């Protein structure tokens, strides 16, 4: 007897991770057991164990899956944008749009669970690196005044983290998408010539 064709197994695995991401984004994950996750995804617990050896590993893997999809979506949304200022605005707004489906419960669970938070932090660092590249590009092209690009990137990373932790929402009332738009406007306005 043979197993499923490799393309089916890969497609099914992707569907399961997509389902996990949707479930976690909507409801969080800390309160869910593996039995509850399997029931919600309409699969067996043994099927979940083909994805990961434990709930912790499953959450981490689903978080990685989410951020891989987010990076692809952000790249797609910003691919044709021209000019450093427009690219920074588009990039930060795309981050906000991509994270918009994440519930407060998911974000709180993500912040409280070190392996998932580390994935978020890695992606935040990559976003800061991208902002730094765009600032450097804008300075080189004469679109921005000479600024310390690493500082601008650190500012962006700090605010991305505060947005993720809901600190900005608490202190300002801005939802995440509004906060990313404001960050983009303030950052690019502050460095424009």
Automatic annotation (TrEMBL):
<dbReference type="InterPro" id="IPR009057">
    <property type="entry name" value="Homeodomain-like_sf"/>
</dbReference>
<dbReference type="InterPro" id="IPR036271">
    <property type="entry name" value="Tet_transcr_reg_TetR-rel_C_sf"/>
</dbReference>
<dbReference type="GO" id="GO:0003700">
    <property type="term" value="F:DNA-binding transcription factor activity"/>
</dbReference>
<keyword id="KW-0805">Transcription regulation</keyword>
<protein>
    <submittedName>
        <fullName>Putative TetR family transcriptional regulator</fullName>
    </submittedName>
</protein>
<dbReference type="Pfam" id="PF00440">
    <property type="entry name" value="TetR_N"/>
</dbReference>
<feature type="domain" description="HTH tetR-type">
    <location>
        <begin position="10"/>
        <end position="70"/>
    </location>
</feature>
<dbReference type="GO" id="GO:0000976">
    <property type="term" value="F:transcription cis-regulatory region binding"/>
</dbReference>
<keyword id="KW-0804">Transcription</keyword>
<feature type="DNA-binding region" description="H-T-H motif">
    <location>
        <begin position="33"/>
        <end position="52"/>
    </location>
</feature>
<dbReference type="InterPro" id="IPR050109">
    <property type="entry name" value="HTH-type_TetR-like_transc_reg"/>
</dbReference>
<dbReference type="InterPro" id="IPR001647">
    <property type="entry name" value="HTH_TetR"/>
</dbReference>
<keyword id="KW-0238">DNA-binding</keyword>
């Amino acid at each position: 007897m043979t197993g499923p064709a490799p393309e089916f197994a890969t497609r099914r695995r992707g569907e399961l991770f997509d389902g996990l991401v949707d479930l976690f984004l909507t409801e969080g994950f800390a309160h869910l057991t593996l039995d509850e996750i399997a029931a919600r995804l309409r699969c067996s617990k043994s099927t979940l164990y083909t994805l990961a050896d434990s709930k912790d590993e499953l959450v981490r893997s689903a978080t990685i899956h989410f951020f891989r999809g987010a990076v692809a979506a952000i790249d797609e949304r910003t691919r044709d944008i021209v000019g450093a200022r427009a690219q920074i605005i588009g990039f930060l707004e795309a981050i906000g749009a991509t994270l918009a489906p994440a519930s407060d419960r998911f974000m709180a669970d993500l912040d409280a669970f070190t392996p998932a938070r580390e994935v978020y932090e890695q992606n935040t660092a990559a976003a800061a690196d991208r902002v730094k590249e765009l600032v450097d590009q804008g300075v080189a092209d004469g679109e921005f005044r000479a600024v310390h690009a690493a500082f601008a990137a650190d500012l962006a990373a700090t605010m991305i983290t505060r947005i993720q932790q809901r600190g900005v929402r608490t202190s300002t009332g801005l939802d995440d998408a509004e906060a990313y738009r404001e960050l983009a406007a303030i950052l690019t306005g502050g460095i424009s010539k």
